[in-house]
């Protein structure tokens, strides 16, 4: 009987040990599984957070579109306090909005705009810019969004009374222009570089006229009117020097951006937005 009792006790102890061992094993496995799950969740959360952060950075970059201009060309672009405003600035803002982007305007000398566009430091140029063969060699242009007229500014008592006087045989009148503009290229071609003086801005060209350094200034009609209104003793000739169309320039071969801009121009023309902006600044 003693042997039987001892045998039964041994069996009970073995069974108990197995149960305890199994129980401990389950707890460890469960704990490890839980820890593993938490690590996965933490890792997933980190990756998700990093991805969101990267996506946000890309999204922010994509939302900014840079426009190059020369902000001394009223009413198309000019400073109002520290802000650049005007016809081009407002149209560009609407184009950027249609592209789902935020507009950033970069002010620079007019003759630097094409190189900045092609270098990729800006996305497009918009500065009362006319399409001509020389520029088409460097950049691509959008459809026209506005019409321009080249005018001649003279002093009220000037001997120049009409555009033809500039072309008269023996004429030696000195012409002031803004560097890189169509007024610059047209007049240099018509009268030669000896008769044409280039200035970085229209302001400086008009200041030279007032001082008597040049006899006239050839510049776009709307800026011409703004300069005449701001300065006594000067006027614009009644006859135009040249007619032209304004367009937006983009890097050569950037057809994707060009098509988007053309679509935006079409829509903004069709719904009257561009006409409303122009009439806000130009009173007929």
Would you write up a description of this structure?
- This protein is an alpha/beta fold.
- It contains ten helices and 14 strands.
- It has helices at residues 2-62, 87-98, 113-119, 133-136, 164-167, 182-191, 202-211, 221-230, 255-270, 273-281, and strands at 64-69, 72-73, 77-80, 83-85, 102-107, 124-125, 139-141, 146-155, 175-178, 196-199, 216-220, 234-236, 242-246, 249-251.
- The strands form three sheets. Strands 8, 9, 10, 11, 12 and 13 form a six-stranded mixed sheet that branches. It has a five-stranded mixed sheet with strand order 5-1-6-14-7, with helices on both faces. A three-stranded antiparallel sheet has the order 2-3-4.
- Strand 3 (77-80) and strand 4 (83-85) form a beta hairpin.
- Helix 2 crosses helix 9 (255-270).
- The longest helix has 61 residues, at 2-62.
- The chain is globular.
- The relative contact order is 0.14.
- Mean pLDDT is 83; it is low at 1-60.
Could you provide a short overview of the structure?
The protein is an alpha/beta fold and about 280 residues long. The protein is built from ten helices and 14 strands.
Please write the string of helix (H) and strand (E) elements: HEEEEHEHEHEEHEHEHEHEEEHH
The major β-sheet equals: 6 strands, mixed
Q: What characteristic shape results from the CA principal axes?
A: globular
Amino-to-carboxy terminus distance: 126 Å
Percent of residues in beta strands: 15-25%
Q: Residue share in helices?
A: 40-55%
Which structural category fits the helices and strands?
A: alpha/beta
Helix tally? 10
């Amino acid at each position: 009987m003693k042997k039987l009792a001892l045998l039964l006790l041994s069996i009970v102890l073995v069974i108990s040990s197995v149960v305890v061992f199994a129980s401990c094993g389950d707890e460890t496995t469960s704990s490890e599984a839980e820890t593993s799950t938490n690590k996965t969740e933490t890792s997933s959360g980190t990756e998700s957070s990093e991805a969101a952060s990267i996506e946000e950075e890309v999204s922010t970059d994509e939302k900014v579109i840079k426009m190059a201009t020369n902000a001394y060309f009223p009413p198309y672009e000019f400073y109002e306090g520290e802000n650049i405003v005007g016809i081009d600035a407002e149209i560009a803002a609407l184009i950027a909005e249609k592209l789902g982007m935020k507009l950033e305007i970069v002010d620079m000398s007019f003759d630097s705009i094409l190189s900045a566009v092609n270098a990729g430091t800006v996305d497009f140029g918009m500065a009362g810019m006319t399409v001509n063969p020389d520029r088409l060699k460097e950049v691509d242009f959008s459809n026209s969004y506005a019409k321009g007229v080249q005018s001649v500014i003279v002093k009220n008592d000037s001997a120049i009374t009409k555009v033809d006087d500039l072309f008269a045989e023996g004429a030696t009148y000195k012409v002031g222009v803004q560097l890189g503009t169509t007024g610059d290229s047209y007049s240099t071609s018509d009268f030669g570089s000896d008769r044409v003086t280039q200035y970085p801005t229209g302001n400086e060209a008009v200041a030279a006229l007032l001082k008597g350094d040049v006899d006239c200034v050839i510049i776009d009609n709307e800026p011409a009117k703004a300069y005449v209104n701001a300065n006594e003793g000067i006027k614009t000739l009644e006859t135009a020097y040249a007619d032209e169309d304004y367009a937006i320039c983009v890097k050569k071969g950037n057809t994707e951006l060009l098509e988007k801009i053309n679509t935006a121009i079409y829509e903004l023309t069709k719904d009257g937005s561009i006409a409303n902006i122009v009439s806000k600044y130009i009173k007929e």
